Amino acid sequence: MTPSTDPGKASAAAEPTAFDRIDAVLADAEASGSQRMQLGALAEALQERAFGMMILALALPCCLPFVYIIPQIVALPMLVLTGQMAAGRHAPWLPANLTSRDFDIAAMRSVVARGKRWFGWAEIFARPRLLALSGPTASRLIGALLMIPSASILVPLPSTNTVPGIGVAIASIGLIERDGLLILLGLFIGLAWVAFLLISAPLIALWVIGLLGS
Q1: How far apart are CA 165 and CA 162, in angstroms?
Q2: Which end of the chain is less crowded, N or C, counting CB atoms within 10 A of the terminal residue's CB?
Q3: How far apart are CA 101 and CA 117, in angstroms?
Q4: Taking the model in full, what pTM does it have?
């Protein structure tokens, strides 16, 4: 007798993850013979999942250690996208000067693969809950709050990008999966770290000044 299968579980297992979707877009571009891809083309290809997919793709290089150059390319577009969420837009848009920025496809695919190893637990754990937090009204507040860790990533100083990037990535997975708990977790990680930096930076500055004056 053939064991019964839960159709819901089978469908969920067959559904590609956010990381798989991003990698598939990059793989298609690479298969066409391209070595580089513009941010505008990536945004257009990922628009089906709106802001969550695009912000996740941009946040990954910012939160993984030992990834260089790409974070500097994607940090400003990420701030622009979170600002658009705060303004109430329903689909991502990038101005021409950011749309034309390009990146190495192979390097980005490597980042996505590493991101899947780091954040795969979040997609396994994610499920629709606290749905009010992923609705259109709450998304404006979430976008405004995500601007804070996104702005931190723009600051070219040590410790200003990795932890905020992790927070933004987790919150974006929550947006994709409509998981309000992950959205809250991502916001807490990003905002708590920025608060820590704002509090500790003056104390460190005073300590250094004291050392220099002694």
Answers
A1: 5
A2: N
A3: 27
A4: 0.79
